[in-house]
């Protein structure tokens, strides 16, 4: 087994608002070594670092918009989000919950701060990820996996080092609650100060670590502070993280999908022609209709 | 910054070396503007034609009641200007504003002169562009006078396939000369007809 080394540690870029409800630092896709092809299957990662929203009677959020060709994964660390879609589906993503939405051949939805939460306001911290799908899976029907916090399996680390919550994939025999189309591992490593955890993924898997709370050291030398992202190189299989204070780390590792990517706005397809078709379908109502 | 879209556009339409076009474009100003910033405001004099390298611009007027009327959207590879101001030296009646962070090439008369000198065929090409623009304006007048909201909308999505996802519906309605409610109704009817799930 070779060590998987740190390729780079990215600082959070200047935040921007998605709608008026999500204040995010975009990590993927961004120019330097964090582009869609390099990071596949993780083609987008927006991180809403902890941000205090004042109370608002009118819930803030993002209005009606489509998605096609991939999956969106929303991990709520702090705050609550309500969502609705054009086929009548909807739900609430509460603290600790994960919503895994397979947009596949197309959904139209909107997402807002949950009404009661919005009235009180408070700290809001979320990750939204886009996981790409293979060409054949892009054609499938949309579906949701609403994963409640209490249904997420956890692995207890030795020596009171902390726990690893397994959202998808597998960690030391503990399986994730989410089903995926291609191999994806997604964990929340919650480490106590001084706690260590080892991870092992195939060298070819694209792997990143996002530090949500605290500070960590990777492989005994690379410091990765709060709100930073470590991109792991494809040079080995194993690595270790150590928390220098109580830390929460989102660990993502997935098998790359080696297909061409044609992406624009909320559509991620394989070819330019499919993209044009997606815009046409949206414009002519084939995604359905949803009131703002 | 490389004005790569404008270069590609001109080299694919004109018989000119890339090196030569680079030096002519090099004499133009390239502006980076943030979302919501203006390239032109009412009563100012418009000195340029803007070519959009990336981002999105909108040209519009505001009437006495404060209502906005969108003349055009200009996404990547589009030109936008106020011809009355730029070519007839009148104070502008329009605003040109960025709807997204944008990069534009500010083209002036000198640019047109240089191209005309270097390329014998340029006047013919420029005429064709003007005729095409006038054709588009005539169609737009006719649609505004005679077409239903649905026809106007279908024409709009044909011309601007990705704008609906980039701008608020109220702006699209103000381009179509219909109310936002009419636009909603049209889109709802289309969805009702085409949504298969």
Structural write-up:
Chain B: This is Crp/Fnr family transcriptional regulator. Chain A: Pfam families: Pirin (PF02678), Pirin_C (PF05726). Chain A: This is Pirin family protein. Chain A: Belongs to the pirin family. The complex is a heterodimer of chains A (292) and B (197). Chain A has a seven-stranded antiparallel sheet, with no helix packed on it. In chain A, strands 2-3-4-11-6-9-12 form a seven-stranded antiparallel sheet. Chain A is 9% helix and 50% strand. Chain A has a single domain, classed as Jelly Rolls (Sandwich). Chain A is globular and about 55 Å long. Chain A is mainly beta. With 197 residues, chain B is α+β, with helices and mostly antiparallel strands. Chain B has a domain of 116 residues: Jelly Rolls, CATH 2.60.120. In chain B, 48% of the residues lie in helices and 20% in strands. Chain B is built from eight helices and eight strands. Chain B has a four-stranded antiparallel sheet with strand order 1-8-3-6. The longest helix of chain B is centred in the last third of the chain and has 25 residues. The termini of chain B are far apart. The relative contact order of chain B is 0.15. The interface between A and B is medium-sized, with 21 and 19 residues.
